[in-house]
Specification:
The complex is a heterodimer of chains A (777) and B (247). Chain A has 33 helices and no strands. With 777 residues, chain A is an all-alpha fold. The N terminus of chain A is likely disordered. In chain B, helix 3 packs across helix 4 and helix 8 crosses helix 9. By secondary structure, chain B is α/β, with parallel strands linked by helices. In chain B, the strands form two sheets. A six-stranded mixed beta sheet of chain B has the order 6-7-8-3-9-10, sandwiched between helices. In chain B, strands 2-1-4-5 form a four-stranded antiparallel beta sheet, with helices on one face. Chain B is globular. Chain B is 37% helix and 25% strand. The chains are: A mainly alpha (777), B alpha/beta (247). Chains A and B meet through helix 14, helix 15 and helix 20 of A and helix 2, strand 6, helix 3 and helix 4 of B.
Chain lengths: 777, 247
């Protein structure tokens, strides 16, 4: 790069301003592009925008999310920092607390140390969140402009000091809090911002030295390793910085702060604290001068180093991964072995995924180490005491194991499509469905992440006092939940990822990650609840949810690279789940409005019938509007009543045997007190049990849920799963007979392909049970 | 072998491909010509099941390219205009992975991959990560991926675009061999000399419409007597010209 000044080149300030504006404009476009593109594209007759072929539909909510999450994060972080300042003061400058005070020397050093830690954490986070290996999008292009390299570097540092989200979140609250306690009150935010800027400039320099400079020096594979190390360090540093503000957790960092040398007060962070705290104008001005001079000298030195680094150009061999590295001995060995022995029966996709994982240290760290740090950090810093109680209570241990696995899945299974990235086209050339490829990956990650609970439980077996049924139940719940969540993560990842995006931060739609995290949180409840029945219900619901999501994803898959086209609407499991929920909610609302405490038969019939009719009408309306395929019919291919009635009688017989077996047991009495039996509801039960229940329940559970399941699964898995859900939504005492009924009605529906048959089965069954209960009472 | 039945694709109000009718016989080398943005890549992506037709359908070997995508891929090898590969995988490993995905056993896949790499002159770089390959090497690797399962049909999007003369000749030679072995080839290009040399029949697409199809001599005779394919091309893709008759 030439050092000479070009005639006609823009001067430093102008070109810096231009570059900063360019970068800000790009950031702005990035945040709003989804919204604008969408709106314009929908406008009919708009010729220029009609051609918009945005590869990313639905970025709308991201911007909203950014604008709501940010202030929240700033606020939360601010309160932690305030606590940190208060604790620091207690430790280093004991005495009453104050609003305006001159900081003692020790306290100043402590605050400087805190700022330094925050600064370091923000720097590491910024580097970790970017992509160290990929060249910056613009530098290659910018060097072709008639601007001196030095100008470019200055502009880059300036611009990065302004566009630095994690820097602002870390440093701004701290500076504001220090300004507040120095007596600035309501001007503290502005003063804090001004005070944070010199530090942000230094952070920008550090980041530029790391990514622009190192990229030219190191090979890509080493850079990736470094990136992995930095992302681990960034989390650790962030936790350390935060620990000072958390009650009872900051001993370690406070100790270090107390031992910091005096000269820290003359470094930039120390000078920032002193400037903020200085009362006399002349002194403050002198300190500002010192601060600016120090920052300027550091920046100048940094730019000299950068220029030196860039002297051979902006691109080097660094973009190339290990050139012509010979295959490692392990791989050569695995090639020569027989197929079965070397691959543990892994499919080609799973084998490739593991190869990538073993070579890409960054991927490895993100998937397997970062979850440990994040969840571990939460446990150690949180106030819940889980870190100790998990070695006593197997349910708590299980929840930690599940949490680790679920977090790891959000980095791995959720990213299934993103890890294919630009090479996604290859999948289109294979004679197998995407679903198979995704299933392979879901299985792989489901199995890999089982390692976390496996290790925890293995340790738990030795540490815990007794290993009883509770321990076993916790193990089973966890080990069943993780594979289910691997499938949920892959399915949500289909909707939540943009594999063709270049920029790392655009690859994931955050709302889907939050949805996944929320769903994973629900299952934690299943893991910790001591109630066996609730646990079963949760597991069935989660399983069904994973089926529903998987089906949605499967419908979407052929349209993956074609976001302009929506798959045709088909009746799916999720419709059934929604209908069931609507039905119960409406029923509940009506009961709450009209019923009061005692439930009369009339009220129940009324609520049930209205809720059923409303749900039915609503679903049919939506189906008609969306021209959905596969809406259940009333009359089927085979409408003879014999088989449905026989099926109903058989299920009824099972129920009667069950009732007789339970007769006189305390469990039955308890259950009777908890809910009404059919008989106690009086004559209203006849139309309810023989007409309303069969009609509406069959529409939802057989028509929608079994029908939706049947589209993706065989007859028996679909029948058993829908029956399990059907049973779960009944009182615990009737789970077993209702499950049998669910299977019988599914059988009747499958044979007839019309809803009349299962309705008849259902009515016959109810008649049997009511008859038996009347006789028995 | 390849059949378009009123194949159409629109993005919102913009129609990228207007109802296309086309039949490519077994063993033909069909050149799909057209200026930039004419709808070539959109058409090819519909053939690969990457994009969904707005109406009509593309058929290969009697199978629908959208609804029976996986079946179709048994018969098809595909080379995109800019093949991008996984980071951290070597050329040999990618080829072997592709072969395995086509149902070959691990050992067979490895042997086949090694043979293809030698045939394509890539043996020097087998152990380098494929993302580091030059464009010519990437295209050759892509062609090897497309041919590894010995498909009946090859679909190539700009196969020699961006290649140096030697690499371009290598690829053309490969294509000629493939054609000689009876494969049906459908390739898009805007390089007319390549079309002249390799194709048995061409179709010219302009603004999403097939404005001319026929053998090269037919087209020349009818549209620019005594002229070159270039003149034919310029004539039928002239702006504001009503679609010329199809031969």
């Amino acid at each position: 790069m030439s050092q000479q000044d070009f005639a006609g080149a823009a001067p430093l300030l102008t070109s810096t301003a231009l570059l900063v504006r360019l970068r800000l404009r790009r950031l702005w476009n990035l945040m709003l592009s989804g919204q604008l593109g969408k709106k314009a594209g929908n406008k009919p007759g708009n010729k220029t925008n009609a051609k918009v072929r945005s590869g990313n539909p639905g970025k709308k909510s991201s911007a909203v999310l950014v604008f709501t999450v940010w202030p929240l994060m700033l606020f939360a972080f601010g309160s932690i920092i305030r606590n940190a300042v208060v604790t620091l003061h207690d430790r280093l400058d004991p005495g009453g607390f104050w609003l305006t005070v001159e900081f003692s020397a020790a306290f100043t050093v402590g605050l400087a140390f805190m700022l330094l830690t925050l600064w370091f954490a923000s720097l590491l986070m910024t580097v970790a969140s970017g992509e160290l290996v990929k060249a910056e999008w613009d530098l290659e292009w910018l060097v072709t402009l008639p601007v001196r390299a030095e100008t470019l570097l200055w502009a880059r540092i300036l611009e990065r000091s302004i566009v630095n989200p994690s820097g602002f979140i870390m440093l701004l609250p701290a500076c504001i809090v220090i300004a507040w306690y120095s007596g600035y009150r309501w001007s503290a935010p502005l003063v804090g911002l001004l005070a944070a800027w010199p530090l942000l400039l230094l952070a920008a320099l550090g980041r530029t030295l790391l990514d622009t400079g190192l990229r030219l020096r190191m090979s890509a594979s080493r850079l990736r390793n470094l990136h992995a190390v930095i992302s681990v360090l960034s989390i650790v540093t962030m936790y350390l910085a935060m620990s000072m503000g958390l009650a009872g957790k900051g001993r370690f960092m406070l100790g270090i702060a107390a031992g910091m040398p005096e000269w820290l007060a003359w470094t930039p962070p120390g000078l920032v604290v002193r400037v903020l705290n200085e009362r006399t104008f002349i002194e403050a001005a002198w300190l500002v001068f010192e601060l600016l001079a120090e920052v300027a000298i550091i920046l100048w030195l940094g730019v000299q180093i950068l220029q030196n680094q860039l002297r051979h150009g902006v691109i080097s061999g660094g973009a190339r991964d290990t050139a012509r590295a010979p295959p490692s001995p392990v791989e050569v060995a695995s090639d020569s072995k027989t197929p079965g022995a070397s691959r543990l029966k892994l499919t080609a996709v799973q084998w490739r995924e593991l190869t990538l994982l073993s070579r890409d240290r960054n991927f490895l760290v993100q998937c397997l180490v970062v979850p440990l740090l994040i969840v571990g950090g939460q446990l150690l810093l949180g106030s819940s005491g889980i870190a100790t109680s998990m070695w006593r209570d197997p349910n708590v241990l299980a929840s930690v194991g599940f949490g680790l696995a679920a977090y790891s899945l959000s980095m791995s299974a959720f990213q299934t499509l993103n890890s294919e990235g630009q090479a996604l086209w290859l999948l289109y050339t294979f004679p197998c469905s995407f679903e198979e490829v995704l299933k392979d990956k879901a299985r792989l990650w489901g199995a890999m992440t089982l390692l976390y609970p496996l290790i925890l439980f293995a340790v738990g077996m030795f540490v815990m006092p007794g290993v009883g049924w509770k321990f076993c139940a916790a193990v089973i719940t966890t080990f069943l939940g993780i594979p289910i969540y691997a499938f949920i993560a892959v399915a949500l990842g289909v909707f939540g990822s943009n594999p063709l995006e270049q920029h790392q931060s655009q690859k994931v739609k955050p709302e889907y990650v939050y949805l996944y995290m929320g769903l994973a949180g629900l299952y934690i409840y299943a893991v910790v609840t001591p109630n066996f029945y609730q646990r079963i219900v949760f597991m069935v619901l989660t399983l069904l949810l994973s089926f529903a999501l998987w089906q949605k994803a499967r419908d979407r898959l052929p349209y993956l690279l074609d976001p302009d086209v929506a798959p045709p609407a088909k009746v799916s499991i999720s419709d059934g789940l929604i209908a069931a929920m609507v039905f119960f909610v409406i029923q509940g609302i009506i009961m709450a409005i009209g019923g009061g405490v005692t439930i009369s038969g009339a009220a129940l019939l009324f609520a049930f019938a209205i809720a059923g009719a409303l749900t039915y009408t609503l679903m049919r309306y939506v189906y008609a509007r969306t021209r959905t395929e596969g809406v259940p019919r009333l009359r089927g291919d085979d409408n003879r009543p014999i088989i449905p009635v026989v099926a109903g009688l058989a299920a009824g017989a099972c129920a009667i045997v069950y009732l007789l077996a339970l007769r006189g047991s305390p469990w039955l009495d308890q259950a009777k007190q908890a809910s009404n039996t059919w008989v106690e509801l009086g004559y209203w039960v006849v139309p309810l049990a023989l007409i309303a229940a069969p009609i509406f329940e069959e529409f939802i559970f057989r028509g929608l849920i079994y029908g939706g399941l049947r589209r993706s699964f065989g007859q028996w898995p679909a029948a058993l799963t829908s029956a399990a859900l059907f049973a779960c939504l009944h009182p615990p005492i009737s789970i077993a007979p209702v499950f049998v009924l669910g299977v019988a009605t599914a059988f009747a529906y499958e044979r007839s392909r019309g809803l009349l048959a299962p309705m008849l089965t259902h009515a016959t069954y109810n008649a049997c049970v009511i008859g038996a209960q009347m006789l028995m009472s | 072998m390849i059949e378009f039945q009123d194949l159409t694709r629109s993005y919102g109000d913009f129609t990228a491909v207007r109802p296309l009718q086309l039949n490519v016989q077994r063993g033909e080398v069909f050149g799909f010509l057209g200026p930039n943005g004419a709808g070539k890549t959109t058409t090819i992506r519909m053939m690969m099941g990457i994009l969904v037709p707005s109406s009509g359908r593309a058929m290969i070997a009697g199978l629908d390219c959208h609804t029976q995508r996986a079946e179709v891929q048994r018969h098809v090898g595909y080379l995109p205009d800019n093949p991008i590969y996984y980071d951290f995988l070597r050329g040999r490993e990618i080829l072997q992975f592709v072969a395995e995905m086509h149902g070959m056993g691990r050992r067979e896949a490895a042997e086949r991959a090694a043979r293809m790499l030698t045939e394509f002159g890539l043996e020097d770089v087998v152990n380098e990560f494929a993302v580091n390959y030059s464009m010519g090497m990437k295209k050759k690797l892509g062609l090897a991926c497309a041919l590894i399962h010995d498909p009946e049909v090859l679909i190539l999007d700009e196969p020699i675009n961006g290649l140096d003369p030697r690499a371009a000749r290598d690829v053309q030679e490969r294509l000629r061999l493939a054609a000689a072995s009876g494969k049906t080839i459908f390739m898009s290009t805007h390089l007319l000399d390549m079309a002249e040399r390799v194709c048995t029949r061409v179709g010219i697409i302009h603004r999403g419409e097939l404005v001319a199809t026929g053998t090269l001599s037919e087209l020349r005779e009818r549209l620019a007597p005594g002229g070159s394919l270039e003149e034919v091309f310029l004539k039928v893709t002239e702006e504001d010209l009503a679609p010329a008759a199809t031969a």
